[in-house]
Amino acid sequence: MRQKHWCGMTAKTGTVLAGVFTIVATDMYLIFEQKPLRSSNCTEVDQWNKSVITLIRQFIICWSLNIVLFLSCITIIISCLLIYSVYAQMCRGLVIYIIWIFFYETVNIVLQILTNNDTSIGEVRVMRWFGLVSRIFMHCFWMFFVTTYAHIIYKSNAQGNIIFYNRRISAGSREFPRRKSKIINFTRHYNE
Fold first, then answer.
1. Quick check: 119 and 40 in contact, CB under 8 A?
2. Mind listing the pLDDT tens digit for each residue in 119-131?
3. Does the global pTM surpass 0.70?
4. In this structure, which of 50, 52, 85, 113 has its CB flanked by the most CB atoms within 10 Å?
């Protein structure tokens, strides 16, 4: 069976490149976002005069660098799991990657919204948003390959399990119908 190609790549190749892209994009994100996230204004907040929402917002802003570092480390590990899952043909690793990327990008959007107000230079805001939006679009592009390959692996595993299941049932019942050998029929025709 001939494999389908999208943008000159098979689903397997696109999935491996999705993992490599995520590792590289996460490293670049950590390099470029380190200074804006580190320079967040974390002055002492008067807890009695602020609402709960303002306190939560201030907590997220103050801990944004630590949150990004933690999520980025998990993202790199999950991207390595994706590459291994392609090698081992495990559908579970691909599904974990899909769910994690949606969660990771959602948290990054929230952090971007909360920490972007602290940046006074307009060009820096534009560059941060451009980087985030372009990374999200590229994740959407690669997600097509990952979901397609996960579907291919799931279908091939389901077919393999059905064949194994039928063999197990027939081996367990111990009722084998008697079959005539084709060799006997062949020798009878050969002798005539």
1. no
2. 567 777 888 888 8
3. yes
4. 85
